[in-house]
Amino acid sequence: MTKEKYLEQRNALLAEVEALIAEGKIDESNAKMEEVKELDNQWEQVKLANANLNALKDNITGIELENRGVEPKGEVTVVDTVAQKKTVDQAAVYEVAWAKTLQGKKLEDSEQAVFDKVNAEFRNDGYTHGTGNTPTLIPQTVVAGIWKRAEEMYPLLADIKKYNVRGTLVMNKHTSIAEGDAAWYDEVTATADEKNVFGQLTLTGCELAKAITVTWKLRSMATEEFIPYIKNELGERVGVALGTAIAQGKGQPGATDEWKPEPQGIETALAAEDQTPQIVTYNPAANPANPADYEKITSLIAKLHSSYLSGAAFYANNATIWTVLANIVDTTGRPIFIPDTTAGGVGRMLGFVVKADAGVSANNVIFGNANKGYVFNTNEPMSLATEEHVKARTVDYVAYTIVDGAVLDTKAFALLKKSS
């Protein structure tokens, strides 16, 4: 029931009450007034339900959604090159219309209608930011291509748990798990109090923007070639920022810090802990031929809580894998790193996959369960604005999104770090 419908029904009932009173039909008027009271009660229940619904919308904490752009639903009728009408999927029409708009090409009437409709909904949904140009929402197929390219280069980015919640995302997390398991008791012993301590992980949002410049000549390529070009370019360039932030991001700046807000990196979170219990250091100067020994790796694995071992992996940049990890031998002199690309990485070590990730700092190795230990949220879907430079005959494409990420539980990670 809408407010307008409620008022309409209430006014009609009140008019009937007045008419009955005027006719001297008091019993009938009293019965009609009871209907008014019942209608008022119904409206109060509707208002309460709406209030509860809005509260749930503002406090989404556990619904996992894939990171997506826009995916128009339904079909639309278009006219093809031989003036024949046909029905096609709106998502396909929007992708082509979006690409042709970036290229400065004229849209067909059906393409323009779908393009305007989708972006009107996008802007009316509260997604705004302070760029001078009006952004256009990137099609889901293109966003998927951008993320796929970024995740291919940065496995940590691919493995973390992702949400797509507009606004602030708040999640509960353990800050202490020293005690709190169930225990056995006899009949006269009281049950011990809960000793687990919970905190909250709050993800607000960090603005991420990347501009790529394309010449007019390059922009004039065929639309079907332009779309994969944009996917690859933005995937690589946005991927660098995202992939590096997951491992090394500084997080939210304090009052005296000068950096801009960015997601919190795993290395940063582990280094910030008191006495750094999740960090193992190694000293290459002590043994240049074998910088990190077998014991260091087993100590690294031992740092993880046992509940996180299933799904854990090693992450390091390519140079660290082949100059550090590949040279580690066990107590019998056999290498513990085994090259193997069948499991989604470049090799295996003590049963765990080793993945090459350019975002991890040089000489460092992250071991952990990224899917359970790190949370990443996209506050605003990716959009793209353009700016023409007539004299230079170039055009800038600026991708923009708002994201945030942080470590949910440091016990899900351990860091092998070269000593300073």
Summarize the entry for a quick read.
This protein has helices at 3-22, 26-58, 90-102, 109-124, 140-153, 155-159, 216-219, 223-248, 266-272, 294-302, 318-323, 370-373; strands at residues 75-79, 85-89, 136-137, 161-163, 169-176, 197-203, 206-215, 279-282, 313-316, 337-339, 347-349, 352-356, 365-368, 374-389, 394-407, 413-418. The protein is an alpha+beta fold and 420 residues long. It starts with a helix and ends with a strand.
Protein architecture, described:
- The structure is a single chain.
- This protein is of the alpha+beta class.
- 37% of the residues lie in helices and 24% in strands.
- The protein has a 7-stranded mixed beta sheet with strand order 8-16-13-9-12-11-10, sandwiched between helices.
- The longest helix has 33 residues, at 26-58.
- The termini are far apart.
Percent of residues in beta strands: 15-25%
Mean of residue pLDDT?
Answer: 79
The coarse silhouette is flat
Query: Radius of gyration, rounded?
Result: 29 Å
Roughly how many Å apart are the termini? 67 Å
Q: Give me the count of strands.
A: 16
Low-confidence stretches: 55-70, 78-86, 126-133
Which sequence of strands runs across the widest sheet?
8-16-13-9-12-11-10
Q: Can you count the helices?
A: 12
Structural class: alpha+beta
Which range best describes the helical content: under 10%, 10-25%, 25-40%, 40-55%, 55-70% or over 70%? 25-40%
Order of helices and strands: HHEEHHEHHEEEEHHHEHEHEEEEHEEE
Biggest sheet details = 7 strands, mixed
